[in-house]
Specification:
Length: 648
């Protein structure tokens, strides 16, 4: 509950601060307007204090304005009435006392009656009557009067009288606001009349002459001239009440120089030969020369701008007897700013069509090659260059696929006999020569069988000889049977002897053992035909080829004889070219994809490079197909998918 209350309090405090800040800003604007009034506010405050002092029998009075300062709103003295001839120190002390008294009233936000004590020569006490002067409910000024009264009640009555007089402050502010409104209305009317006069012209030159004549009438000038900027110079286009004029005359040349002076500076140029008149704080040499030529005329040159660029100049000449008020100068400046775009548009529309086309090209080229909107131009040029690049550049499209080195000649060695594997002589990776022993089987059982068969054969032969020696016809038949039995036993002996010879497994070719780590299977039984070793020919460069697994979506792009480049995973910087030699037209599943095996023959590498390549090494191969635009490289997959799904 306490947190809710604290949050509400903090919110209300923040709202109060915002309201105070807004009030301070409003008060600052109002005070700035009063200070801009200059002597008028001082005279009015002096008169107001006089009246207030008279109606309350005051002895001293002071008026202050509130203006923003470093520490907040500060009091600025604008009027002080003291009948005696006091010195400066006394007056400063009195103003300081007034400031302290008014400060207390400002903090409370209301008028006040403050007892300031009785002087030595009077029995009646003195009171300071303070009235806060407001505008738009904001205190912007204060007036205070010292008066003598018999008591507090009498002083309060006099304060009410002061309040009635203070009401004139509001009337004065209303009168000034009304005058400002009248001036603004008159200024707007002048601008509208000038714009209407220019719009009524049938051509640009006619409209320019109408504008000059209208300004002469509205401003009581002796002459108004309009010049237009052409490249780096000004061309005199129109003069008031003059249809034809010679641009080479001395007067025309002087007017053009005054206009160019205004264009070069890009701001209003005003010259008044009267020392008490107003002359702008810029270069007025050409305006001074024109004034002397025209017997002391007052010169005002106004730049005409279109999109922050000076496109023309209006030069007005006034007789020496004509006083140039700030109101007139301001009205002329406003009229120039409002009418300038209309003049520029009329000038652009009244030119010949070929000139319009040329100027349009020049104008648009500035936007293209100029310094403005640099970021947008860089982005546009970059996008344009990118579009041209992806459209016109046609790099080679390459089919990417993983590969593996495989030997060209590869042999699988199986168990020649069934039996116990006695000794394994080689390990994977070992290089052997043809007929080198690889493994030895146990032959004790075979030798025992051979000995037994030899004994059986000898017995059969002996029995046959004995039967032949008996010369019994029946024995002759049995003897022949025994000889046949001996021949059968001899064949079995030969088979066993062959098995004994094959008990030593030898390398069929020179090469390297790829598979066959059988050390753990020593002394164990092996069946005939079981795989023992896998070996490949010695890995000379020509004994390896790349087996590439190409996705089915790219297989139709490849042909035998296609060229490509491959690089191994272990050494991607070493890229080697190859040629496609064979494409197996049978797909197989690999990593949830349907792939085709493609074989490639490697080109000859540098000396000593072949030893760094081994069967089983993997990498990536890229096979050249055809040059295609760059945008096709990035979009053909999507387009193929769309065509397949939509059947187009």
């Amino acid at each position: 509950m306490s947190s809710i209350v604290e949050s509400q309090n903090s919110g209300s405090e923040q709202q109060k601060k915002q309201e105070q800040s807004q009030q301070a800003m409003t008060r600052s604007r109002l005070v700035a307007k009063l200070l801009a009034a200059g002597p008028d506010i001082r005279e009015f405050m002096h008169d107001l204090l006089n009246v207030q002092a008279i109606v309350v029998n005051g002895t001293e009075a002071a008026g202050f304005l509130l203006e923003p300062g470093e520490g907040g709103m500060q009091l600025r003295n604008v009027a002080h009435i003291r009948p005696d001839n006091s010195d400066d120190e006394t007056r400063k002390a009195a103003l300081q006392a007034f400031t302290e008294i008014i400060g207390e009233c400002l903090r409370q936000g209301k008028d006040g009656v403050i007892d300031v004590g009785s002087p030595h020569d009077s029995v009646e006490p003195q009171f300071c009557l303070v009235t806060l002067l407001r505008n738009q409910e904001q205190v912007i000024a204060a007036s205070c009067v010292i008066t003598r009264a018999r008591d507090q009640e009498r002083a309060q009555q006099r304060l009410e009288t002061m309040r009635l007089v203070a009401g004139y402050f509001d009337l004065w502010l209303l009168r000034r606001a009304n005058e400002a409104a009248v001036q603004t209305t008159q200024r707007h009317q002048d601008v509208l009349q000038s714009a209407a006069a220019f719009a009524n012209g049938e051509t640009f030159n006619g409209a320019s002459a109408n504008l000059c004549n209208e300004l002469v009438t509205r401003t009581s000038a002796s002459r108004v001239s309009l010049g237009w900027v052409k490249i780096r110079s000004v061309k005199l286009l129109a003069m008031s009440h003059t249809e034809q004029f010679d641009r080479r005359q001395e007067l025309s040349v002087s007017i053009v120089k005054a206009m160019e002076e205004c264009v070069d500076q890009g701001e209003l140029v005003q010259y008044d030969p009267d020392p008490t008149g107003h002359t702008t704080n810029n270069i007025t040499r050409a305006a001074m020369s024109l004034s002397r030529m025209e017997n002391g005329n007052k010169i005002v040159s106004l730049p005409l701008r279109h999109r922050n660029e000076v496109v023309g100049v209006l030069t007005l000449e006034y007789p020496p007897t004509r006083a140039l008020s700030p109101h007139l100068t301001t009205s002329l400046a406003v009229a120039a700013e409002v009418i300038a775009p209309q003049i520029h548009d009329r000038y652009q529309n009244d030119r010949w069509i070929p000139v319009k086309i040329g100027q349009s090209i020049v104008h648009n080229s500035k936007y293209i090659i100029g310094p403005r909107h640099t970021l947008a131009k860089v982005i546009f040029v970059s996008l344009l260059g990118l579009a041209l690049l992806v459209t016109l550049w046609s790099p080679m499209y390459r089919v990417s696929a993983p590969f593996q080195f495989t030997p060209v000649v590869k042999r699988s060695i199986s168990a020649p006999i069934a039996g116990k594997l006695l000794t394994v002589l080689v390990e994977p990776g070992q290089i052997v020569k043809a007929d080198d022993p690889l493994a030895i089987f146990d032959t004790d059982r075979l030798k025992a069988q051979r000995e037994q068969l030899l004994l059986d054969k000898a017995r059969a032969l002996i029995t046959a000889d004995e039967m032949l020696n008996n010369r019994d016809p029946e024995d002759d038949a049995q003897a022949a049977q025994k000889k046949l039995e001996a021949k059968s036993l001899e064949k079995q002996i030969l088979i066993i002897e062959m098995d004994i010879k094959r008990a030593t497994v030898v390398a069929p070719i020179d090469g390297r053992i790829l598979k066959g780590d059988l050390k753990e299977r020593e002394k164990s039984e092996v069946k005939e035909g079981d795989a023992l070793f896998e070996m490949a020919s010695v890995e000379a460069f020509g004994d390896l080829h790349a087996e590439i697994r190409v996705n089915e979506r790219d297989i139709q792009l490849l042909r035998e004889g296609s060229r490509g480049t491959l690089a191994t995973t272990s050494n991607p910087n070493d890229k080697r070219e190859f040629t496609v030699t064979r494409i197996v037209p049978l797909g197989e599943a690999k990593d949830a994809k349907n792939v085709f095996r493609v074989y490639g023959k490697l080109d000859s590498p540098p000396d000593g490079q072949a030893s760094a390549w081994h069967a089983g090494q993997e990498g990536e191969a890229r096979i050249d197909w055809e040059k295609k635009p760059l945008y096709w490289h990035g979009t053909h997959r999507l387009w193929e998918w769309v065509r397949l799904k939509l059947w187009i």
